[in-house]
Amino acid sequence: MPKHQIVKKSKIKNPANMSVSEMRQIEQEFASELDTNPQFSLEVDPLRQYDLDEIDVEFIQHMVQYKNIRFVGTVLMKLDENEALNIYKKYAVQQEIKRINLAMYARRFCSKMADLDALGGYLTTALTDENVPIADRLSGKDKLTAVRLLMELNALKMEAWEHPEVVDVVAVEAEIKKLNVRDIEKLIENSDEDDKIIQKKNELISKIDKDGLLSPEEITYLRTLTNDELEKLLKETEVSTNNETNKK
Question: The pTM is what?
């Protein structure tokens, strides 16, 4: 199973053979799993499997947020850089960082699927004219576009269960009620803009992981962040680390 997959294949059919109701049931089950399964807990070592001390726990808590060993060690915890690296290399610390990153990734994925659900709900309402003022109702042409988009949206959601990365570039940053059919069309259709977004994302992640020490799970989680979030993370850790270096 590819490392980015977060749903066991045995739990779902081939996405192409799933009905919308089956897909929604899986989404509900998965959302429930996030709240009940310790594997998806954001708490450090919820089952107390490892003999972690307070410094290890604090390091893990910071590391899953900032993804920068030097920043976490020297700036946040006032440790020697070698001390921070040694903590990061501990087996138990690595295991918990990987698990929490996958848990965070699963939650981001679930949130993105909810965004797609909201888009689908908007399109459905627009098609039926339910609670839509006469002046705001779609023309016949736009309704045909909305039907096509709804079908594409459902296909995208089904594909996402096998390949979660397909929703990484679908960033619904505006409120649903402010979107129109044309806006949604731009959000879910592939375009040259998607390639630029992905290229920029790869560049930002490379800068964040300039030492090449982050695990595949940490990189996977970073890919779920928007480019604005990645830039903010990069700026925050770089500025603080440089300030700390200048003090020495």
Answer: 0.72
